[in-house]
Amino acid sequence: MNTSVSSLDDALAAALAEHEAAGLRRACRIQQAACGPREHDADGNEFLAFASNDYLGLANAPELIAAATGAARRWGVGAGASHLVSGHTVAHEALEQALATFTGFEAALGFSTGYLANLAVMPALLGRGDAIFADRLNHASLIDGARLARADLLRYAHCDLSMLARQLEGSQARRKLIVSDAVFSMDGDIAPLADLLMLADRHDA
Fold first, then answer.
1. In the chain, what are the domains?
2. Is the pLDDT score of 200 beyond 80?
3. What predicted TM-score, i.e. pTM, was given to this entire model?
């Protein structure tokens, strides 16, 4: 065996053993049915589910299942390319126009997940010479989006408006963006959005 491959295998095995010893090794939990407020594991044990992002219970709504089934029959199950290449169908366009009308905005843009939306927004708005001020407990998607933007990233202690105000006052960045969860997914804390908006107005962020 190639010695470099062997040493990599050994290093990965050692790291995996450390994770195992620390109780950090993870495995997928196998569900027996579609997501819902109550779930069953592979052994048949029932659990009340708090980890799902199906907040409104729409994943199994009969009307949505029927609509998705009809859409799959008409459009298939893949666009074949990104939207900008050849994957933007009249169905996508109709959805975005309907969302724009519903929200009262000029246009809307659809993403397949919230994670992808958070990855896309910050790099579109900011770049080198700009600054992002992020709550330390932000969701991973916001952290990843901030790093992709290549702006200076300053993180403030969780919901610490005094620390954030000091960071904003000391910034000479061309553009400033304050980034925060509204409801923090791990702890359920609610961000002080009105106060964040006040700081943004005060510091042109």
1. 62-103 (no CATH), 114-202 (3.40.640.10)
2. yes
3. 0.77
